[in-house]
Amino acid sequence: MKLSSRAHELFEAFKLDGCPVCRLVLDSVYHYLDSVIYEYVNKPATHEAVRAARGFCPTHAWRIQHEINASALGVAVLYEGIVRHMLKDMGDITPQSNRRQVMQAASALEPRQECPACTHQRIVEEHLLRNLVDYLDQPGFAGAFRETDGICLPHLRQALEMGGNPAGKAHLVSIQQDIWTQLQQHLAEFRRKRDYQYADEDMGEEGSSPRRAIEGTVGLSGIR
Ligand SMILES: [Zn+2]
Ligand SMILES: [Zn+2]
């Protein structure tokens, strides 16, 4: 089986639980955020972009706080610049400022561009999804994908909205339908076994189906 490096990453991620695209994207965004925070002196363009976005979006800002806050210094340097620019752009507002000045301050607070980590995430997602669709014509790759929990609904929709490769997309949807058919059966079985009449039956594979259903519809925790 001959795979691109991205397809190979996917193939390895097929061995893990949950949407393989989410898993690789979470990892890539982690490294992106880590480099922005740790190499704060070397990334003036990225800092400019983060200031223009008025900071990272809630998902990515909280990932920094929870996962990368070992470098509180990097966070301090980055966010000092964000707060300083917000204050400067708003102008001096006093209790006597008129409505127009307050409205100007309000519009100055609007982000002027998207969260740079979201931009990075979207590029990585598109790249991974394109590789997923393109390599399904390789039986070994398709067979390994079939054994996974499938990709999450947001990533499936994103894959289908991309241009090109209608045959690859049909293959993706058909595998995904088989995976969701099994998920639906597991959920129904879970429900049946929770009925008091069958309460003495042990849970099997269906035991994890409620969590898999949540992950399957929104993606892995931390992705959005
Ligand atoms: Zn996903
Ligand atoms: Zn973001």
Provide keyphrases for this structure.
224 residues; mainly alpha; elongated; binds zinc ion
Explain this structure to me?
By secondary structure, the protein is mostly helical. The protein has one domain. 68% of the residues lie in helices and 0% in strands. The protein is built from 11 helices and no strands. The mean pLDDT is 94. Bound molecules: zinc ion (ZN) (2 copies). The site of one zinc ion has 7 residues, from helix 4 and helix 7.
What is the strand and helix layout of this fold?
Elements: H1 5-13, H2 20-38, H3 44-52, H4 58-67, H5 72-90, H6 99-108, H7 116-135, H8 139-146, H9 153-161, H10 166-194, H11 209-218
Radius of gyration from CA coordinates: 23 Å
* Distinct small molecules: zinc ion
How many domains make up the coordinates?
Answer: 1
- End-to-end Cα distance, whole Å, is 33 Å
Count of DSSP H/I helices: 11
Mean pLDDT: 94
Percent of residues in helices comes to 55-70%
Number of strands: 0
Order of helices and strands: HHHHHHHHHHH
Q: How would the global form be characterised?
A: elongated
The secondary structure category is: mainly alpha
Task: Tell me the β content.
Answer: under 5%
The major beta sheet can be summarized as: none
Note the quaternary state here. single chain
Low-confidence stretches: none
